[in-house]
TrEMBL record, chain A:
The chain crosses the membrane at residues 20-44, 65-87, 110-136, 148-167. Keywords: Membrane, Transmembrane, Transmembrane helix. Pfam families: TctB (PF07331). This is DUF1468 domain-containing protein. It comes from Maritalea porphyrae. Residues 31-172 form the DUF1468 domain. It comes from the Bacteria.
Automatic annotation (TrEMBL), chain B:
Keywords: Membrane, Transmembrane, Transmembrane helix. The chain crosses the membrane at residues 12-33, 39-62, 69-89, 109-132, 139-157, 163-184, 196-221, 249-271, 315-339, 351-371, 383-400, 428-445, 465-485. Residues 19-435 form the DUF112 domain. This is DUF112 domain-containing protein. It comes from the Bacteria. PANTHER family: TRICARBOXYLIC TRANSPORT PROTEIN (PTHR35342:SF5).
Length: 192, 495
């Protein structure tokens, strides 16, 4: 089945449509499969304590039924995937585990950027934080030309105007806005 | 006639018209930007639509959904980069045509085929509506449970080569949906005594994490590509006339789109795959497929654009989403306390008709916009990937934070973003998780209500519709097992 990550990925092949259905195994995939199977085992071990099964209650009304279905399903599919990995152990393909994990670790930096941005919005305000975030991030990504900074400012202003001013999505005004002059404060809290 | 006028008057409202315009044009632009795609756009827009009336919100989202594939053909044809996932097959013949200097013809064929596929699909659905209105009331709790189960089975078996992973991820989705306080005995399920887990994990938070944030992270850790699309010279309308001269390609392709769109869990890619394969056999030009055959381009674009309208059928008639985009739309219904299902189809048909008319209008708008604006749109292909990733991060924040103003929701979304990134890097499917969450929730409720009237296992499938769906489940599973058994000996023979 085609993936969402085919979007934006340059394709360099000619020919077989069937290629889209073939999924080569990477060692990273095996590690990922093993880890998710272990998570399923852990969840299964918690079934008794983290959900309730009442005596004498019909099966369909048991609170833990669907959690159990999900976990048992993960265990069954996960187990057969382990078996499948074992039979294909000689056909593992690059990229390997370390290469994949390095990519994931690099993405961790942007998770931090995102969480810092999220934490600052209620304090500094939506518009200033968004503009600051986009400008700093443009710098971090290595963009140095004025056109990129101008585009970042334009994108930031557009996003705030469209979502907060126009569509009135629920984003509270920043605590910093309390220090603004009266006339500007209510406008900033409502629209910026 | 009165019904038609009522539906038209609903569409003539200024807020609906604006939503239609923004949705259809926005969808084309979003589709044309490689790296965004309709799932991300819909996930981000979703919370904003909660404040709108259902028809306005759905029109906006439908606009994005239905028109993004038009835009997705532009980078697929010009720079060999599919703008949306379902435009991947378009690159097979679109880009070779560009390389031999026929970019304008390829684009105009793609737009013409997309328009024809979409209109044929909508007309087919309007004609089918009386049948659907008659059949929908035959679906009770048991039938809806079985239809959801069929959807799950199809989601797993259509991921060929990845069925086990898809199954595990589907079950993960079922599990995630159960986290929090359950509504029968008010007991906690897998909250680990954490207060922030008591209200459960919101579908939209998961969707935004898995689709939008993961894509943002993926773009940010990648490289910027230097896409230089060729200039567009000539008339873009001529391809439409050329498409009309290919009814043997367009009609079967659109039909595949309609049928595949209606089946939960199947979707655009299989429709495109089957129609492309059929066109290769029937066009008499099969040897040129993959090397710039106009018929191949027309087949794939007609099929994928026929799907969105058809995908609304299981959603509206049964309340069962067939894929991630319609699963997101389902939440718009729920927020407004409009429960899609047999009653909606039977009693509020004017609403359904309004949506179909909106689909026709959005296709006309998208097609007209492309005829005039494609030359300008080719520039959006040049937006650097990492810059785009940065903007998606900011947009994702709007989607997550505006739900409950919760930083914890943002952290959960970021965690799912990382998980989505891992899945994408490993080429594992994301959609089963979303469908597991949505269909799992539906099945839990319907199973409970069904069992109140069931004494033996046979009672569950005593009604004809239930028997048909149960038969389909057995056939699908049987066919899948048969294909697995048949594949293995042939490999051995090859050795």
């Amino acid at each position: 089945m085609i993936q969402e990550n085919e979007i934006g990925a340059k394709t360099n092949r000619q020919g077989k449509v069937e290629d889209y259905f073939i999924s080569p195994y990477s060692s990273a995939l095996v590690w990922f499969g093993v880890c998710t199977f272990l998570v399923a085992v852990f969840l299964a071990s918690q079934l008794g304590s983290q959900t309730k099964f009442f005596e004498g209650m019909p099966l369909e009304k048991q609170p833990g039924l669907w959690a159990a279905i999900g976990i048992v399903g993960m265990l069954i599919f996960g187990f057969f995937q382990m078996v499948q990995f074992w039979f294909h152990r000689n056909g593992l393909q690059a990229p390997g585990f370390v290469a994949e994990v390095l990519i994931w670790a690099r993405a961790g930096e942007y998770v931090l950027w995102f969480m810092i941005y999220v934490s600052l919005v209620p304090l500094v305000g939506y518009l200033p934080t968004t503009l600051g975030f986009l400008l700093l991030m443009s710098w971090r990504l290595g963009y140095r030309k004025t056109k990129y900074f101008a585009s970042a400012i334009l994108a930031g202003v557009l996003i705030v105007v469209v979502f907060k001013s126009f569509l009135q999505v629920k984003i509270p005004g920043g605590a910093f806005y309390e220090f603004l002059p009266d006339a500007l404060r209510s406008f900033a809290i409502l629209y910026l | 006639m009165e019904l038609l006028l009522t539906s038209l008057s609903a569409l003539a409202r200024i807020d609906v018209a604006i939503a239609l315009l923004i949705g259809s044009i926005g969808g084309v632009v979003i589709g044309a930007i490689p790296g965004v795609g309709p799932a991300i756009a819909i996930a981000i827009l979703l919370p904003a639509t909660f404040a709108m009336e259902p028809i306005v919100g759905l029109t906006l989202l439908l606009g994005v959904y239905g028109s993004s594939m038009y835009g997705g053909a532009i980078p697929a044809i010009l720079v060999n980069t599919p703008g949306t996932a379902v435009n991947a097959l378009t690159t097979y013949d679109g880009f070779p045509m560009t390389k031999r200097g026929e970019a304008t013809r390829a684009l105009s064929l793609a737009f013409g085929a997309s328009f024809c596929g979409a209109i044929i699909s909508i007309i087919a659905l309007i004609c089918l509506s009386p049948v659907l209105a008659a059949v929908a009331p035959m679906f009770g709790s048991r039938e809806i449970f079985l239809a959801a189960l069929l959807g799950m089975v199809l989601v797993v078996v259509t991921h060929r080569g990845q069925a086990l992973a898809a199954g595990a991820l589907l079950c993960l989705g079922i599990f995630i949906n159960t986290i929090g306080l359950e509504s029968i005995r008010y007991t906690q399920r897998f909250t680990f005594e954490q207060a922030w887990l008591a209200s459960g994990i919101d579908l939209i938070v998961v969707v935004l994490g898995l689709f939008a944030l993961s894509q943002a992270f993926l773009l940010l850790v990648g490289e910027d590509e230097d896409n230089k699309p060729p200039a567009i010279v000539g008339r873009l309308f001529d391809g439409f006339k050329e498409v009309l001269r290919m009814p043997k390609i367009v009609l079967p392709s659109a039909s595949f789109g309609v049928v595949m769109g209606m089946i939960p869990g199947v979707g655009e890619f299989l429709a495109q795959f089957f129609s492309y394969s059929l066109a290769r056999k029937t066009s008499g030009n099969g040897e040129k497929f993959g090397k710039g055959a106009p018929e191949g381009l027309v087949a794939s674009e007609a099929a994928n654009n026929a799907v969105p309208a058809a995908a609304m059928i299981p959603l509206l008639a049964l309340g069962i989403p067939g894929e991630a985009l319609t699963a997101m739309m389902l939440s718009v219904f729920y927020v407004h306390n409009v429960i899609p299902g047999p009653q909606l189809f039977a009693n509020e048909f004017d609403f359904i008709l309004s949506l179909y008319l909106a689909l026709i209008a959005l296709n006309v708008l998208a097609f007209a916009f492309l005829l005039g604006a494609t030359r300008w749109l080719t520039h959006v292909v040049r937006i650097p990937n990492r810059f785009l990733g940065m903007v998606i991060l900011v947009l994702s924040f709007v989607g997550v934070y505006s739900l409950r103003n919760s930083i914890i929701d943002c952290a959960i979304a970021a965690a799912f973003g990382m998980f989505g990134l891992m899945l994408k890097c490993l080429k594992l499917p994301i959609v089963p998780i979303i469908l597991g969450m949505v269909l799992g929730g539906i099945m839990e409720v319907k199973f409970r209500t069904s069992m109140a009237r069931v004494e033996t296992a046979w009672d569950f499938i005593e009604r004809p519709v239930a028997q048909v769906i149960f038969g389909l489940i057995i056939i699908v599973l049987g066919a899948h097992i048969f294909s697995l058994l048949r594949t293995k000996p042939s490999k051995g023979t090859a050795k």
